Amino acid sequence: MKRTSTISRPVEIGLRFIGMWPDSAYATLYWLIYMTTMVIVQYYQYAYVLTHFDLSDISLLMDCLGLTLAYTLAFLKLFALWWNRRIFYYIVKVMDQDWKECVINGSYNATMMNVADISRRCSNVMITINAFAAFFLSIGEHLLQSMDNASGVDNNSRELPIKMEFPFDISDSPIFECFLVGQFFYELVLAFIVGIMNALLVSLILHVSGQIDIMRQDINEISSRKHDPSTSLVIIKALICKHQKIITLSENIENLYTYIALMQLLWNTLVICCTGFVIVITIRTNDSGTTSIKSVSFYIAITLEVFILCFAGEFLSAKSRSISNAIYESLWYDMPPTNSRILLFVILRSQKRLTITAGKFVDLTLEGFTSFVQFFRL
Fold first, then answer.
1. Which residues are within 8 A (CB) of 93 and not within 5 positions of it... i.e. 6 or more apart?
2. How far apart are CA 31 and CA 84, in angstroms?
3. What is the DSSP string of 106-131?
4. Which of 21, 96, 249, 264 is the most exposed place for a label (fewest CB within 10 A)?
C-alpha cells in the first residue's frame, strides 16, 4: 500500500527524533536531549574561537568561526520550529484531512500521489547533499589529511575536524579516536536534521501546489459540463471554500518559516563570508586540497539552503497566480451572470499572490536569490 502523505518517511523520522512530530512519544524529552547536546557542543566551539582569536592567523579563525556560526544557526532554526510547533501541528492535521478527501474522491488521488513522489525525491536529494557536506567536514577531512601525511601523524598536532577547546588533552589515543567518531555522528545527525527542515518546507509547498492543481481541475470540470444554475452555484461555493483553505494553509506555512527564513538570510551572510574567505585564502596560498574540499562542500550546502527558501517562495507565488489564469481560461461567460460574477471575485483574490517572506517584510523569490548571490560577488 502506498504511503498517503506528502511528507516523506525520512522527514517524519527526523521530526520524531527531535520530538517535533505530532503525538510523538516522549517528544519533549527528545527535544531537550538534542538541544542540550547542541548547547554543550556550541560552548566548546565558542571556547575555541575565543581562545584562538588571533588576527595573525585569520584563515584558522574564519574556518572555525564559519562552522560555529552555522551550528548556531541550526540551533536557532530548531528553536524557532519548536516555538511554532502548534502551527506545525495544525498544518499536519490539515494535510491529513486533504489526503482523506483524496481517498474519498479518486480523481484527486493521482494528482496528490504525483506530488508525494516529487516530495520524496526532493527530500532524498537534499538530505544526501547535506550528508556529503557533513562527511567532508568530519571524517572526510581526517582521511584526506591522513593520506597527505602518509608517513604518520604527530599526536601533538592532531586536531578534531570540529574545532573545540577542552579543559583536558585529547590528542592521545584512544581518546582522540573516540572524540573523532563522536563528532562524525554528531555532524551527520545535525546535517540530517538541517536537511529535513529544508525538505519539510519543500514538502509543505508541494502539498499546497497539489491542492491548487486539484482546484484547477475542478474549475475545468465546471466549465466543461452543463450544470443547472443551482448545481453550479453549489460547486462554486465549494471552490471558494477550497480556495480559502489553500490561503489559510499557505499563511500558516509562511508563519512557520518566516523567521527561520530571516535568520537563514542574515546569519548565512556571516557564514558565507567566513567560508568564502577561507576558500580564497586556500586558493591563493596553494594550501592542501583538504581545506578546499571541506570549504567548497560546506559553501555549496549553505548556499543551497538559501536557494531552497527562495525557490519555494517563487514556486508558491507562481502556483497561486495560476488559479486566476485557470478561471479566466474557463467558459465562465457561458455561466449565469450571478455565477460568473462570483468567479470574478475569486480571480481578484487569487491575484494577490501567496508567498513566503523573511521576517514579514521581504518576499523570497528567485530574483531575491540572484541579488543575494550577486552581493557576495562584489
1. 22
2. 14
3. HHHHHHHHHHHHHHHHHHHHHHHHHH
4. 96
Residue 315 has, within 13 A of its CA and on its CB side, a CA count of: 16
The gap from C-alpha 290 to its chain's centroid, in whole angstroms, comes to: 28
Could you please report the per-residue DSSP string of 194-234? HHHHHHHHHHHHHHHHHHHHHHHHHHHHHHHS---HHHHHH
DSSP assignment of 335-366 equals S-HHHHHHHHHHHHHHTS----EETTTEE--H
Distance CA 20, CA 31 (A): 8
Query: Which class for 375: exposed (0-12), middle (13-18), buried (19 or more C-beta within 10 A)?
Result: exposed
Encode 35-64: b = buried (16+ Cβ within 10 Å), e = exposed.
Answer: beebeebbebbbebbeeeeeeeeeebbbbb
Cell numbers for 173, please give them: 589515543
C-alpha dist (Å) from residue 195 to 18, 131, 208, 326, 370: 13, 8, 20, 34, 22
Instruction: Name 125's Cβ contacts closer than 8 Å, sequence gap at least 6.
Output: none
All three cell numbers of 358: 523573511
Write the pLDDT tens digit of every residue in 186-231.
Answer: 888 898 999 999 999 999 999 999 999 999 888 877 766 665 666 6
Give start and end residues of each alpha helix (H) in the chain. Answer: 9-17, 27-51, 58-83, 85-104, 106-137, 139-148, 175-224, 229-285, 289-329, 337-350, 366-377
Q: Do 321 and 347 form a contact (C-beta atoms < 8 A)?
A: no
Q: Are 305 and 194 in contact (CB under 8 A)?
A: yes
Distances (CA, A) of 93 to 14, 28, 241: 18, 20, 17
C-alpha cell at position 326: 485557470
How does pLDDT run across 230-268, given as a tens digit for each residue? 667 777 888 889 999 999 999 999 999 999 998 888 888
Angle between helix 139-148 and 289-329 (nearest 10): 150
Longest dimension (CA), the chain: 87
